Amino acid sequence: MFADQTFSPYIILLCLVCLIFILLYARRIVQTPQEVDEILIGNGQTIGKREEQDDYFSTVISEGHTLAVVADGISGLANGRMASTLAVTTFVREFMKLDRFIKLHDFFSRAAHQSNQEILKSLSGASGGTTLACAAISHNYLHWGAVGDSIIALYRNGHLVNVNEKHTLGSLLEEQYLSGQITKQQAMENPQRKRLINYLGFEGFKSMEIGEPLSLKKGDKIVLCTDGVYNSLTELELCEILEKPMLPIEAAEEIINRIDGKGLKHQDNATIIILEKSW
Length: 279
Description:
Layout: H1 9-37, E1 39-46, E2 55-62, E3 65-73, H2 80-95, H3 104-123, E4 130-138, E5 141-147, E6 151-156, E7 159-162, H4 169-178, H5 184-189, E8 209-210, E9 214-215, E10 221-225, H6 227-230, H7 235-242, H8 248-262, E11 270-277
Antiparallel strand pairs: 1-11, 2-3, 3-4, 4-5, 5-8, 5-9, 6-7, 6-10, 10-11
Helix pairs in contact: 2-3
């Protein structure tokens, strides 16, 4: 004979609470990777009319963060290709060391100084250098850092807005004009307006520009590109392509095809990365 067994209401309630916690935890595990998958990535590149490709780029995903980085080796200096490759490789290496809760501001600063030191070491006194634009998307925010004249821009609601400043003599001259130090003519007609005043591989490098995180919305597109892109296509031409309902890889390819199709005599290397927040 077995004794009658009755389950206490408290035991039943406890079992239900435990079951709810288990289901919630399982749901969290399933959903976490999906956020990464919903950052769509596309890229494109052309050598233009140059004999060598001095641009270098990479995109990686690690510990819930998405990284995109593009560098433009300075064509007027020797070792531009080496400098851009080394800079991007260094940023990716440092990024892969991060855990899920790392402070990205510290990452940008550390990777920039590490890149500059390694480039200078490799140059051993020779000339060389590179621009670099880096974007990291984490928890609905865009974190970014840049040095030189490669661009990070945000496309939203039909408008393309540059996020970073160009570290060129032209930008400095414009600041001097606005402050009344020089005339508009002096600012606009300086023949060295495009000369870089800050880049990686520069003995006088102090820091890269690091911006405040930007909150992202569904449908936002983050564009990183070298000057071979924005010197060849107007903002209107870029917006015409970015507004089309296509994947980032298709948009990037169309932008590069548009550049090649112009057949500009002195077309520079051109590289573009497009990140789209689809969730």
